[in-house]
Specification:
CATH superfamily of the largest domain: Butyryl-CoA Dehydrogenase, subunit A, domain 3
Low-confidence stretches: none
InterPro entries: Acyl-CoA_DH_CS, Acyl-CoA_Oxase/DH_mid-dom, Acyl-CoA_Oxase/DH_mid-dom_sf, AcylCo_DH-like_C, AcylCo_DH/oxidase_C, AcylCoA_DH/ox_N, AcylCoA_DH/ox_N_sf, AcylCoA_DH/oxidase_NM_dom_sf
Distance between the termini: 50 Å
Number of helices: 10
Shape: globular
Mean pLDDT: 97
EC number: 1.3.8.6
Family: Belongs to the acyl-CoA dehydrogenase family.
Largest sheet: 4 strands, antiparallel
Oligomer: single chain
Structural class: alpha+beta
Strand order of the largest sheet: 2-3-7-6
Enzyme class: oxidoreductase
Number of domains: 3
CATH architecture of the largest domain: Up-down Bundle
Strand content: 5-15%
Catalytic activity: glutaryl-CoA + oxidized [electron-transfer flavoprotein] + 2 H(+) = (2E)-butenoyl-CoA + reduced [electron-transfer flavoprotein] + CO2
């Protein structure tokens, strides 16, 4: 019996029936709603916000959070499969869901008060309240401890001053989860759209994540009550804990991008005839396609095991770093090779490889660059911090 070219080790057989149903439903959504429009959205630099209500109705926002807050209560593997299928459509769609779920809803659930959970999470699960995550700063990049944004206590309020950069969903957002230095260390605040002194400016001229909203956030003496502070965490462990949640999903997402590019190249190489035979009949093309299949298979197994560890409560941040490093590198290499197999046709958004390759330039950078994750693993295996 012939093997599935995109699942050579039958990883799907390792999934539960519920996990397979979730993957299939998101795959149908991607095929029917995302793929027909996403090339044009990328060309136009437009996030397809008309898809948000259906994304929400499917339970994809905050999918791993408890049902009591209006969420789906799914396991970690299911969330990973959601990310994989959405990114098979486009990294911008997966990024929207990742930010809403892991970087905005998660900190409210994990670090917020019960009042904050009840106030925000149900509306966020319904897609009625959109969030963004304000950590990265213009000068900071991979060094969040060097944060310049400050929040100072003034009576029963906090006054925030500073700026954040490269913020997904910034101009879409109704709330921002903002991390700032205080006298008691880094703390998180929920800042609502329209608060005096808070502005979001969209970043233009992007060549990556064009079907996603990217913004800069500015805080000029923004006053928020103490009830908007996340009370249950202080220090970098707060934002880093959120990033671990989001990075986990990112280990799955690039698998979807790689599968899209690989499938496109596989089909095209069978159809295109050069020198009286299909491109797929040449040894060089077969070696490239086999290498793509090998690397996708390894990434699938890596993320599945990571998901099982997460569901068991034993996942370590360094394991997430290894998977993010491996799978992003795998995907960007495959997209570039797929573009090459498509020849000149590969440079247009009529085919997915170049779009995914450009998007992955951001994915391999955000939430920890490849170099940072390499150094995390270096520290883990040597016990020496080289940062």
């Amino acid at each position: 019996m012939a093997l599935n070219p995109t699942d050579l080790f039958d990883v799907r057989s390792l999934l539960s029936e519920e996990e397979r149903m979730i993957q299939d439903s998101v795959a149908r959504f991607t095929d029917e709603k995302v793929l027909p429009i996403i090339g044009d959205c990328f060309d136009q630099g437009r996030f397809p916000k008309e898809l948000v209500p259906e994304i929400a109705s499917m339970g994809l926002l905050g999918s791993s959070l408890p049902e009591e807050y209006g969420c789906a209560g799914l396991n970690a593997v299911s969330y990973g499969l959601i990310c994989q299928e959405l990114e098979r459509g486009d990294s911008g769609i997966r990024s929207f869901v990742s930010v809403q779920s892991s970087l905005c809803m998660y900190p409210i659930y994990a670090y917020g008060s019960e009042e904050q959970r009840r106030k925000y999470l149900p509306g966020m699960a319904r897609g009625e309240i959109i969030g963004c995550f304000g950590l990265t700063e213009p000068h900071g990049g991979s060094d969040p401890a060097n944060m310049k944004t400050v929040a100072k206590k003034d009576g029963g309020d906090w006054v925030i001053n500073g700026a954040k950069m490269w913020i997904t969903n910034g101009n879409l957002a109704d709330i921002a989860i903002v991390w700032a230095q205080t006298e008691d260390g880094i703390q998180g605040f929920i800042v609502e759209k329209g608060t005096k002194g808070f502005e979001a400016h969209e970043v233009h001229k992007k060549m990556s994540l064009r079907a996603s909203v990217t913004s800069a956030l500015y805080f000029d003496s923004v006053r928020v009550p103490d009830s908007q502070r996340l009370p249950n965490v202080k220090g970098l462990k707060g934002p880093l804990g959120c990033l671990t949640q989001a990075r986990y999903g990112i280990t799955w997402g690039p698998i979807g991008a790689a599968i899209a590019a690989y499938t496109s190249a596989l089909e095209y190489s069978k159809e295109r005839t050069l020198f009286n035979r299909p491109v797929a009949a040449t040894q060089s093309a077969q070696i490239k396609l086999a290498e793509m299949a090998r690397r996708i298979t390894l990434a699938q197994l890596l993320s599945l095991q990571l998901g099982r560890l997460k569901d068991a409560g034993t996942m370590q941040p360094a394991q997430v770093s290894l998977a993010k490093w491996n799978n992003c590198r795998m995907a960007i290499d495959i997209c570039r090779e797929a573009r090459d197999l498509l020849g000149g046709a590969g440079i247009t958004t009529e085919h997915p490889p170049i779009r995914h390759a450009l998007n992955l330039e951001s994915v391999i950078t955000y939430e920890g660059t490849e170099t940072v994750h390499q150094l995390v693993i270096g520290r883990e295996v040597t016990g020496i911090n080289a940062f």
